[in-house]
Amino acid sequence: MRDYMIAGFENFDYEADCIEKFRDRYAEENEEAYEKSTPTGIKALDAAMCGGFPDGLIIMAAGSNRGKSTLITQIAGNIAAMGRDVLIFSLEMEPQHLFLKETSRRSFVDSNGEMGINPDNYRLKELREGMAKNFPEMNDYARDCVNRTCDLVGKRIRIVNNSHPLLGYEGWKVSTMAAYIQACYINKGKKAPVVFIDYLQRITSERNAPDNPIEALKIITTSLKRLASDFHTPFFVLSSIGRAAYKDKVNIGAAKGSGDIEFDAYNILGLNFAGMSEDFDEEEAKRQNPMKMEINIIKRRIGRRDRSVSDTIPLDFFPDYSYFCSPDEVPEGFNLHDPYVEEIKPKTTIITTGAGRTSCQPNRKPKSDKKGTKEKKGKNNCKQREFAPDQTPEAILASMIEKAQPVGPITRLVLLQ
C-alpha cells in the first residue's frame, strides 16, 4: 500500500495542478472566474451575506419551534421563483406539510396580507368546509393558491423524505444524496440544484461510520462540504441544538453533537428570538404577533463584509402564514391590532360544562362579578354560568362575522366554527 501511494504521488502533482487552475481562472477576466451568490429573497439576509448563499456548506442552527423548517421552505420557494432548481431533503416533515407552508405563505404575500390562509384551513376537513360555506371568495382564492404552488413545485422544487421507495429502511445518507443529484440532475444535463437538508442530525451514517455519534457527524459534515464543492452549489443544512442552549443565543458549540461544524461550514447562522437573555420569557415571545426573531451570522469564512450592515438580521415571523420578512416589509394589508387575539378569543372560549367550569380553564370557577354573566344554582346545587342574551358564544360569533373585514382575522374566524 505504501509503495502504491508513493508511485501515485510521484506521477500526479496535485498541488501544481491547483496552481494552474487558479491562474487560468483568475489571471484573465472571464465569466467563469466570478463566483455568483444565490439570493435568498430576504433582502436583509442577502445584504449581510454579500448577495446570498455562496457555493458551499451553510449551516443554520436553531431550537425547536422557532420556524427553521418554515424559513428554509420560504427561501427554497424564493429561489425556485427566480428560476433555479431546488432540492429539499425533508428528513423530519412530510412533503405535504411543506407544501401547505408554501401555499399558506403564498396566500398571505400575494394578497399583500389581506387574505392569508392558515395551513389548518387546508388540512382539516371541517375547517375547509366551513371556509367554503361562509367565505366562498376566500375558498376560491385558497384553491388558486394551491394550483400556483403545485405549478411552482412541479417545475422547480423536488421534496424527498425518508419514505423514498429506493431507500428501504436506511434513510438518506450523504452517498445516496450524491447519487440522487447525479442521476436526477447532472446526468440529464442540468445544473446541480440548491440543496436544503432538514436536518443534519437526521442524516443516516454510512455503514462503516464510527459508533461514536460525534465522530460520525464529523464525517457527515466533511462529506457535505465536499459535495457542495464538487457540485458547485449551496448546501443549506439545518441543525438542532442541545436543550442546554435553548435559552441562549445560538453559538458554534450549541449545535447538537457539533463535531467539526466550525471547520467545515462556509457560513454558520443562528436563528433566535430577538432580545434573548438570562431572564428571557420564551412563552411571551411566542405570543407576539408577529414574533420578533433574528438571524445571527456566527461565522463567515471568506468574503467582503460591509461594515454598514450588521451581522444580526431582525425578522418578523408570522407563524399563522409561514412567513418571515424584515420589519419594514410587513404586508400593508396585515392588521397588527388583531381583534381575534385581544377581544374575541377570551369570549368565545367560555363554554359551560354544567359544573361551573369552562373548557379552557377546567379547574377555575367563574367569578360572580364578571360582566354580562351571573351565577345560578343548577341540579345538585352545582353552579352554572348563565349568559346575558348579547354575551352568548353564538351572539358574539355572529357579531364577529358581521363586523369582520376581509383581512387576516377572517381566516381565523373559520377556525372557531
Features:
single chain, 417 residues, alpha/beta, 9-stranded mixed beta sheet, two-stranded antiparallel sheet, 15 helices, 11 strands, 15% strand, disordered C terminus
Q: Can you tell me about this structure?
A:
The protein is α/β, with parallel strands linked by helices. It is 39% helix and 15% strand. It has helices at residues 2-11, 14-26, 43-48, 68-81, 95-110, 119-123, 125-134, 136-156, 174-184, 213-231, 261-264, 282-287, 339-348, 393-403, 408-415, and strands at residues 57-62, 86-90, 157-160, 194-198, 235-239, 267-273, 291-300, 312-318, 323-325, 373-377, 383-387. Strand 10 (373-377) and strand 11 (383-387) form a beta hairpin. The longest helix is centred in the middle third of the chain and has 21 residues, at 136-156. The protein is globular and about 90 Å long. Residues 336-385 and 404-417 have low confidence and may be disordered.
Describe the secondary-structure layout.
Layout: H1 2-11, H2 14-26, H3 43-48, E1 57-62, H4 68-81, E2 86-90, H5 95-110, H6 119-123, H7 125-134, H8 136-156, E3 157-160, H9 174-184, E4 194-198, H10 213-231, E5 235-239, H11 261-264, E6 267-273, H12 282-287, E7 291-300, E8 312-318, E9 323-325, H13 339-348, E10 373-377, E11 383-387, H14 393-403, H15 408-415
Parallel strand pairs: 1-5, 1-6, 2-3, 2-4, 4-5
Antiparallel strand pairs: 6-7, 7-8, 8-9, 10-11
